[in-house]
Amino acid sequence: MGNRLTQIATRTGDDGTTGLGDGRRVAKSDLRVAAMGDVDELNSHLGVLLCEPLPDKVRELLVVVQHELFNLGGELCMPGYSLLKDEAVLRLDEALAEHNAALPRLQEFILPAGTRSAALAHVARTVARRAERAVVALTNAEAPGQVNAAPRQFLNRLSDLLFVLARVLNRANLDGLGGDDVYWKSERLARAQAEDASADGQGS
């Protein structure tokens, strides 16, 4: 395994093509290559997020997710091959349920803001959505059986989880710049806050 990468600058891609895991060469603009690139970008954003102060449980989860994303990318690299296990999707479902249960109900849409770690989680969330769209586009373009369902499901759950983790990280407030969700200032929210203030005033 240690000798799998023996040369980085191969120059074989100078013609605008790249190699897949099955030995075929395709254009770098190919939908499969685009999906692989989005997954790679997502993993890189998680690497940046892991540089931040994080609760231990969140850090452990994201490290596992990084490894699963590497498996996902490997699966996309080899048409028809299965590498990402069903347990990977189940693990995200369980983490999503656990972390979401500890959060208060949302009053309105929230902005991708707060602590730096929460903002980075939101960036990763949007890249996960793009990667999911890329996998869906690839699935629709390829013959049946060439793209498995697990990668699409994993990316869908991961984007949801990253939204929830952004809320968790704002409350963890490990950099002292957060503490709560940053709500979009909609008319509905302003109305609700005004009604709450009026009720509080009458109660006093």
TrEMBL record:
EC number: 2.5.1.-
Entries under Gene3D superfamilies matching the protein: Cobalamin adenosyltransferase-like
Cobalamin adenosyltransferase-like domain ranges (all copies): 8-168
Region (Disordered): 1-21
Domain of life: Bacteria
InterPro entries xrefs: CblAdoTrfase-like, CblAdoTrfase-like_sf, PduO-typ
Family statement drawn from the similarity comment of this UniProt entry: Belongs to the Cob(I)alamin adenosyltransferase family.
Protein name per its UniProtKB record: Cobalamin adenosyltransferase
Organism: Inhella inkyongensis
